[in-house]
Structure formats: structure tokens, C-alpha cells
Amino acid sequence: MVETLAQSPAPICWVVSDGRRGIENQALGLAEAVQAQLAARGSKLRIGRVVAHKDSSVALPDCGPPDLWIGCGRAAIPLAARHRRTFANGFFAYVQDPRGHYRNFDLILAPAHDRLVRPNAVAMIGSPNRISQTLLDEGRASFAAQVDALPGPRAAVLIGGDSKRFRLTPRIADYLIARLKDLLAQDLSLMITVSRRTPKALCERLAETFGTHDRVWLFDGEGENPYFAFLAAADWIFVTEESTNMLVEASATGTPVYALPMDGSAGKFTRLHAALEGRGAMRPWLGKLATWTYTPLAETQRAASVLIDRWQAETASPALNDGEAA
To answer: Which end of the chain is more exposed for a tag (fewer CB within 10 A), N or C?
Structure first.
């Protein structure tokens, strides 16, 4: 939870990004995992949001200077250099590969598929995310009436769009529409969500084809986002293969995950797909539903534990010690 209290004896964490949901949630997810682990030790952590806007303005929180600074995305990199000079006692962490700006950070949490080797870098499968049982339970509770109106079993369908390596072409749009019809024919209810990258033409086709179907909940971006409710209520989760963040988030739920193909080549992301398949979380969609179990991916929690240990060793802060309530 992001807080903006003017003063607090608890350590303060700044979450720094350009404000885009997919970027900010990586840093925020790591901060929330740190917050939860500190709470289990009897300590507190305040989280404030920093947004670097396109016009070069920066929105700062009113919770005070950062003891912990967690950034994600390109916009956070130049801010790290500036903030290190201003907040010399802060511990600076970065999610992803900062592309040469390694000295600006005390710790880098880099995706293993990037193969970054630096003394201050720790590899993890994918990137941090906000998925927790508490968040899933809260999400489902917030949309209980809508979820319960859909007869089970249910599948969540998470549709992305064009990326550097993939394209959601008309051919793929035809494929997706056909596969969704197949799932309905197997008596599944569908919870479908699109992203900002999803082509408008496909969004319109989804609305035209499934918008009034009594076993389809199509979220088109209007109103409160039921994303976490979809993940919580699903018996299966389908994700277009270019959506690395959503694949990792889905794999953190313990629910079977199917990858839907796109036009293009996965390149280095083949290593991420292989890691998720190797953990038993994800399988390619070949047309036949299967049920399986696996241990939910907990890389965010592992990364948070590493960060706390490094931060504590660097600062020797009593507020981070076990049993020391801040």
C-alpha cells in the first residue's frame, strides 16, 4: 500500500518510474514484498510514489526522503544519479538492466534472461510483481458479484499486443477469436482483458463477438480494473506469449498457465518461457485442457529477502532488525 504521511519514524521507500502500470508495478511489487517481510519481523516501511513525466517534471511524495529507493524503467535511471547526490544515505535498488548505469545502484534485480553479470546484480526469473494471496483475495472480494455470475469452470484470458519482437497481426487476431470460441464450446466461462497495446481492431472484434455472451466478462479498460479478480477466480490462465510480465504474474498464482502464440520470434525471452515451463507453471496451448499443480513462482519474495539483507548490511539500520518495530 502506498502511503504519503508527512512524517514517520519508519523507514521510507520511494517507488520510482514513469507511472506506466506495467513498469511501476514491478518496483511497487518489490517494495510491497519488502514491506510485508519487514512487517513479519515487527518493523514498518512507508512507501511513496515518484513519477517522472514526459515533460521532465517529477512528482515527489510527501512522506519524506527515501531510506530505500526502488526504480524501474528508463525514466528512473537519470533520477537515480540525481537522487544519490541528494540522499546520500539511501539504499538504491533497480529492477531490470540499467544498461551501463550500474554504479548508480547498490543492488540490481535483473531478469535472468538478460544474463547480466555484475557484482551488484542478482538474477531472477522474470521481474518482480504485486501478486500475493492477500491481493488476490481482495481482488476477488471486490468483484464477487460479477465473478459469481459466471458459471465455473472459468478461464482468464490476458491479451497483450505488439512488442519489439512480436506482432498481434490479423492472422493472430483470427486465431485468438477462434480459440476463445473453442473454450466456450468446452463449457468454460471466460474473463477477458486487453492491454493498452492491444490493436483497436481486435478490441472491437472481441466486443462484437463476445460482448453480450452470458459466459463472457470482457474488460475493455473502462472502470475499475478486475485484473486481480480474474487471476484469483480462474481455473486456467491464458496469456499471449509476448506479455512477459503477465506470464510471470500468472505463474505466481499456482493456477495452470497456457501461452498463446503471436507472430514473431521470442529471442532472449525463450529463456524466460523455458524457465516457466521448467517450473511446471506454463505450457503452450495445443487445444486440449489439462489440469496440473505447481509451486507458485515466488521470485518477488526471494528478491525482497535479498534486498533486505543487502540493505541491512549496508546501513546497519536498527529499524530493519528482527523484532525492532519502527
So the answer is: N
What are the residues facing 14 on neighbouring strands?
A: 48, 69
- Cβ neighbours of residue 25 closer than 8 Å, sequence gap 6 or more: 129, 130, 245
pLDDT in tens, 8-41: 479 999 999 999 998 999 999 999 999 999 999 9
CA distance linking residue 26 with residue 127, whole number of Å: 6
Residue 310 burial (10 A CB sphere; 0-12, 13-18, 19+): middle
Q: Does 223 have pLDDT greater than 90?
A: no
Least confident of 154-158, 162-166, 180-184, 299-303: 162-166
153: cis peptide before it, omega within 30°?
A: yes
Cell 519508519 sits on residue: 10
- Positive or negative, the Cα torsion across 264, 266, 268, 269? positive
Distance from the Cα of residue 197 to its chain's centroid: 16
Tell how far CA 54 is from the center of its chain. Answer: 22
Beta bridge partners of 205: none
Alpha helices (runs of H) in 7-90, residue ranges in sequence order: 21-40, 76-86
* Segment 163-201, tens digit of pLDDT: 988 999 999 999 999 999 999 999 999 999 999 899 999
Q: How many angstroms separate the CA atoms of 234 and 201, rounded?
A: 26
Question: Measured between alpha carbons, how far is 135 from 308 in angstroms, rounded to an integer?
Answer: 22
Q: Which residue from 122, 127, 93, 73 is spatially nearest to 249, judged by alpha carbons?
A: 127
